C-alpha cells in the first residue's frame, strides 16, 4: 500500500432508485476524511469529483438496466483515474455514489494486473439484466465486473484481471435467486451474516482473504449497507441484521494486516437519509482502519 492516497469522487445516483446518494462524496469529505488519513501517516491528494450529469435530465433507456449508457461514461473515466493513480504510485480511494461506480474502480485497478476483490455488502450485486427485479445497475455491479450474462459483451465493464474464484462476498444477507445461482455456478466465495454469527468476523475475513488472493493486491469495496441500519442509517437499501460497529472495524483491520490493499471504495452513503452525518463519519473511520489505523 502506498503512503499517498488519491481521493476521487464519483457522485452518481444512476444505479439506484433513491435520490441523494450522489451527495455521498461531499458528506464523506465533510466528515474529515483528509484529516483522518493524515493522522495515520498518509498523504491525501483530493482530485475532486468526476463530472456527472443530473439523473433527472437523462433518459433511463432500457428498463432492465437503467441509465446504463450514463454509467458507462462515468465508469470509463473513473477506471482511467484509478489506473492513473496506481501508475503514479498512489492508492486510489473512490467515494461513491451508488455501487455501480465499483465497475469503474475495479476495471481501473485490475488493468494489466491480477487483482482479488473483497465485497463487503448486504447484497450480492450479481444480478444481470435478465435476473434483476428492479433494473437498477447498482445491483449488477459485481456481475458486470465478472462479465456475467450480457456483460460478457461489454468490455468497458468486464475487469479482465479479476477471476470469479478470487472474489469474496462478506456479510451478505439479501440475495435474489439469480444471485444465488451465479454464486454456485461461478464458484464465488460467499460468506453470509450467519457465517459471521457462527464463526466470528475475524475467522470469516481470514478465509475471505485467502479466497481473494490476487497476485497484485486486493480491491476493497465497502457498501455502508453492510452494517446494521442502527449503525449506518444513511443508506438507500438498508437490511436489518447487519454487522456491528466493532465487527466492521475488526474486519477492516484484518484486511489491512493481511492484505496489500491496492484500491478502496466507499459507496451508498445517502446524507438525505442519514442522522447528523453518522454514516459518512463511520465510512471515514472504516477507511482509516482499512488503511492502517490501530488502537496501539
From TrEMBL:
One of its GO terms (molecular function) is manganese ion binding. Its EC number is 3.5.3.1. It comes from the Archaea. Keywords: Arginine metabolism, Hydrolase, Manganese, Metal-binding. Binds 2 manganese ions per subunit. InterPro entries: Arginase, Ureohydrolase, Ureohydrolase_dom_sf, Ureohydrolase_Mn_BS. GO terms for biological process: arginine metabolic process; urea cycle. GO terms for cellular component: cytoplasm. This is Arginase. The lineage of its organism: Archaea, Methanobacteriati, Methanobacteriota, Stenosarchaea group, Halobacteria. The gene is rocF.
Amino acid at each position: 500500500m502506498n503512503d499517498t492516497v488519491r481521493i476521487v469522487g464519483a457522485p452518481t445516483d444512476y444505479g439506484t432508485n433513491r435520490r441523494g446518494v450522489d451527495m455521498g462524496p461531499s458528506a464523506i469529505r465533510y466528515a474529515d476524511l483528509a484529516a483522518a488519513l493524515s493522522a495515520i501517516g498518509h498523504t491525501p491528494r483530493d482530485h475532486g469529483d468526476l463530472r456527472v450529469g443530473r439523473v433527472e435530465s437523462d433518459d433511463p433507456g432500457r428498463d432492465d438496466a437503467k441509465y446504463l449508457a450514463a454509467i458507462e461514461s462515468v465508469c470509463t473515466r473513473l477506471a482511467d483515474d484509478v489506473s492513473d493513480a496506481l501508475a503514479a504510485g498512489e492508492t486510489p480511494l473512490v467515494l461513491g455514489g451508488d455501487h455501480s461506480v465499483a465497475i469503474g474502480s475495479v476495471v481501473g485497478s485490475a488493468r494489466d494486473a491480477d487483482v482479488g476483490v473483497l465485497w463487503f455488502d448486504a447484497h450480492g450485486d450479481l444480478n444481470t439484466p435478465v435476473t434483476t427485479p428492479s433494473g437498477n445497475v447498482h445491483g449488477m455491479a459485481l456481475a458486470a465486473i465478472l462479465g456475467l450474462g450480457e456483460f460478457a459483451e461489454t468490455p468497458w465493464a468486464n475487469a479482465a484481471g479479476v477471476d470469479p474464484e478470487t472474489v469474496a462476498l462478506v456479510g451478505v444477507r439479501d440475495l435474489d435467486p439469480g444471485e444465488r445461482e451465479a454464486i454456485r455456478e461461478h464458484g464465488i466465495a460467499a460468506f453470509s451474516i450467519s457465517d459471521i454469527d457462527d464463526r466470528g468476523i475475524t475467522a470469516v475475513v481470514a478465509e475471505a482473504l485467502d479466497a481473494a488472493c490476487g497476485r497484485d493486491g486486493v480491491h476493497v469495496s465497502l457498501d455502508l449497507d453492510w452494517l446494521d441500519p442502527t449503525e449506518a442509517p444513511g443508506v438507500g437499501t438498508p437490511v436489518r441484521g447487519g454487522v456491528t460497529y466493532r465487527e466492521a472495524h475488526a474486519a477492516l483491520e484484518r484486511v489491512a494486516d493481511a492484505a496489500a490493499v491496492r484500491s478502496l471504495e466507499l459507496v451508498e452513503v445517502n446524507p438525505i437519509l442519514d442522522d447528523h452525518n453518522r454514516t459518512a463519519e463511520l465510512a471515514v473511520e472504516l477507511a482509516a482502519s482499512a488503511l492502517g489505523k490501530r488502537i496501539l
